[in-house]
Amino acid sequence: MICSRVLMPVNNTNDYDLLILLRTIEFTIYCKTSDFYHEGEILGKEIASDLSEYDKNTLANKYFVPNEFYLTPNACFDKYNSNNLKWNYNDDETNYYSSKIILNLLKKLHTNLAKEDLNFSFILFQDEGEFAKPFYIYCHNDLAKTEYDRLKDLHADDRFLLFNATNVIEKELPKANKMFLTKSSYSDYLENKLNANVQHAIDIVEHKLKN
After folding, report:
1. Vertex 106 angle, CA 29 and 203, to 5°
2. Which domain of life is it from (predicted)?
């Protein structure tokens, strides 16, 4: 369940793994990582300094798309991912690792949802029956435009793909960003309730790093 920032399929999907950043009783928030470099990606060791042993052994040499996050209902995540995720809702401490990289990703997401830094993308995947479909929660216009220009360079002859991407940029993105930025019960949920869960995960990881 990954896509580009214009909601189009990603080439070489098998190159990627999903890194869960946190899970609530409703949603899973994650990002994608890869052992192989793709344009615009950075190494995990560029996300944080003074890495933990966990970071050095698992994430330091993985590639990440900067400031890119995904959210999906737990049922959707479990349906379309075969990693048999086990999550302990009774003891959250057991679900997280001592990781400076994960901590910095969580802190970044927290500032994003608090609207202190809007240079990010947050994409929702919803179960459509036989597949999971991506929708914008928010994406900075410049990030989407960069992705769109890259798509045009790589797939100049694919009119159908470019038509769909253009529709996303011109219609879906402005609506989603307006909803995210306009004060409402929806934006309040993201900024406060969901972000409280992000802060909870931050607190756990910080505690683990101190011990």
Report:
1. 110
2. Bacteria
**Cα 21 to Cα 70: distance, rounded to the nearest angstrom:** 10
Taking the model in full, what pTM does it have? 0.95
The domain limits of the chain are 13-210
For residue 184, count CB atoms less than 10 angstroms from its CB and return exposed for 0-12, middle for 13-18, buried for 19 or more: exposed
pLDDT over 90 for what percent of the chain? 89
Q: Which two tokens stand for residue 37?
A: 């470099």
**Helix (H/G/I), strand (E/B), else coil: 154:** helix
Long-range contacts from 115-119, C-beta under 8 angstroms, 24+ separation? 115/181, 115/191, 119/67, 119/143
39: its two tokens: 């344009």
Q: What is the pLDDT of residues 38-77, one digit of tens each?
A: 999 999 999 999 999 999 999 999 999 999 999 999 999 9
Query: How many Cα atoms sit within 13 Å of 45 on the Cβ side?
Result: 8
Collapsing DSSP to helix, strand or coil, 19 comes out as strand
For residue 32, the tally of other CB atoms under 10 A from its CB is 23
